[in-house]
């Protein structure tokens, strides 16, 4: 009886709150509203946001690596914002090219070293190894505990 109740609760969670459940399991979250973005941005978890656009070749090449890292790096909010699909002006106003990756923690840009310079973002396609290095450096600076 307990197992049956647990199964029903799990199915209910999947149906009623798929974004919440996927975030817990370690998947990239597709941002669809400014409210959703702000809630994740202000949370205690470090956040990395990939700004992308449909039809962008470097975005297409990099996005699978980003999503794969989201599955393995728990404790970090991995977010994807499509700059053409979403009219989130307040979020995308500072984006000058895609893909762009922005790092934040507790509602503020997170400064850390990438290739010898201090920054809170970078632009352009990256290999899986480069993304993993940058994200590991970022999460080391912003502990997820």
Characteristics of this structure?
alpha/beta; 6 helices; two-stranded antiparallel ribbon; disordered N terminus; Glutaredoxin; 45% helix; globular; six-stranded mixed sheet; 145 residues
Report on the structure:
With 145 residues, this protein is α/β, with parallel strands linked by helices. It has a single domain (28-141), classed as Glutaredoxin (3-Layer(aba) Sandwich), CATH 3.40.30. 45% of the residues lie in helices and 22% in strands. The protein is built from six helices and eight strands. The chain has helices at residues 2-16, 18-25, 34-41, 57-72, 89-92, 128-141; strands at 29-30, 46-52, 77-82, 100-105, 108-109, 112-114, 117-119, 121-123. The strands form two sheets. Strands 1, 2, 3, 4, 5 and 8 form a six-stranded mixed β-sheet that branches. Strands 6-7 form a two-stranded antiparallel sheet. A hairpin with a 2-residue loop joins strand 4 and strand 5 (108-109). The radius of gyration is 16 Å and the shape is globular. The chain starts with a helix and ends with a helix. The relative contact order is 0.17. The model is unreliable at 1-24 (pLDDT under 50).
Give the DSSP E fraction (strand runs of 2 or more residues). Answer: 15-25%
Radius of gyration, whole Å: 16 Å
CATH topology group: Glutaredoxin
Mean pLDDT metric: 78
CATH class: Alpha Beta
Q: How many DSSP-defined strands?
A: 8
Q: How much helical structure, as a percent, in the residues?
A: 40-55%
Q: Unreliable runs, pLDDT <50, ≥5 residues?
A: 1-24
Category from helices, strands and their pairing: alpha/beta
CATH-defined architecture: 3-Layer(aba) Sandwich
General shape: globular
Largest sheet: 6 strands, mixed
Tell me the series of helices and strands, N- to C-terminal.
HHEHEHEHEEEEEH
Please tell me the total number of domains.
1
Within CATH, the superfamily carries the name Glutaredoxin
Q: Number of helical runs?
A: 6
- How widely separated are the two ends? 35 Å
């Amino acid at each position: 009886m307990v197992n049956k109740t647990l199964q029903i609760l799990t199915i209910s969670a999947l149906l009623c709150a798929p974004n919440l459940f996927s975030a817990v399991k370690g998947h990239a979250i597709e941002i669809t509203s400014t409210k959703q973005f702000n809630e994740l941005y202000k949370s205690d978890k470090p956040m990395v946001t990939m700004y992308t656009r449909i039809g962008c070749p470097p975005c297409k090449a990099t996005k699978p690596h980003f999503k794969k890292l989201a599955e393995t790096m728990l404790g970090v909010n991995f977010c994807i914002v499509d700059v053409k699909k979403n009219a989130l002006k307040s979020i995308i106003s500072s984006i000058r090219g895609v893909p762009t990756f922005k790092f934040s923690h507790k509602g503020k840009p997170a400064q850390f070293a990438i290739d010898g310079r201090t920054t809170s973002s970078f632009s352009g396609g990256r290999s899986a190894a480069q993304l993993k290095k940058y994200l590991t450096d970022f999460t080391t600076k912003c502990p997820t505990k």
